[in-house]
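W.,

You were right to be curious about this one. When I first looked at the sequence I had no strong expectations either way, so I just let the prediction run and decided to look at it fresh. Below is the sequence, 317 residues in total, followed by the output.
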Amino acid sequence: MRVCLMIEGQEDVTWDQWLALARACEEHGYEGLFRSDHYLSVEGRRERGSLDAWTTLAGLAAVTSRIRLGTLVSPATFRHPSVLAKAAVAVDHISGGRVELGLGAGWNEPEHRAYGFPFAPMRTRMDVMAEQLEIIARSFLDESFSFDGEHYRIEELDALPKPVQRPRPPIVIGGRGGPRSVRLAARWADEYNTFSASVDEIRERRDAFAQAWRAAGRDPDAFRFSAMVTVLVGSDEADFRERAAALGARRRQDVGSLVDGLRGHGVAGTIDEAAQRLRELEHAGVQRVMLQHLLHDDLESVELIGRELIPLVAAVG
């Protein structure tokens, strides 16, 4: 199993903290560093700030050399698809071919209202995402194209320069296994990423995506399925409980219910417990895991995972 770190950048992650996290990922064996793409705290903490996702990735691309970088995921509601494709290509060039573009329909209505982004009903947002997927994917190709949709019109575009990665940077669709998002990913994307689910639910979503992938006539050897899961580990039970207390205080959440939830749906506990959960996810068909690290200033935890957990699960697959 391949392991990446995922950071909720809208919860007041500073540039210095981004630098430290990226350097820790490079040093301690993570495949990549992914970040959310939000402009307001999703925990309702309006005093928290958020650096723009793609600007952040461009900066990190210039100061890293190994790890992959991407969004998990960028809302289709935030940017015109030509702008998003251009940002991804820029980061691909800056990084020397290490970017991945995660895309979703957008869901956080308060930040849309605050920043003035239209927030249409879900069906319309899915329509927008479908058009964006096609436009972005075709923008990466070595040919011009036109597109005439309900939401976007493109005329004889040959977007230059082309990406460093060939045939294109990986496109990742994030979703909870809805039939339409699965079909869109099977048609236009390179990977489906799911979240907020039990191991059994993740297995069902993987199977649904595999079926859609086959129906779309895609190469079975190119199939990619991943999951984002919250991580909280300690070197022993006492260390885990100490970190759980810190996370509970940050999120204003009861520690007992937090621990129960993490052990039920996350990668949590001691290193051995975390390794067992990752093995369960791998057996459910997860090829890559994005560990959602909510204590973003806890670099010791990032190092612990890289030093003790990643070698255990790498040996499994």
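Here's what jumped out at me. The first strand starts at residue 2 and ends at 7. And, maybe more interesting for your project: Residues 2-314 form a domain with the TIM Barrel fold (CATH 3.20.20.30).

Coffee later to discuss?

I.
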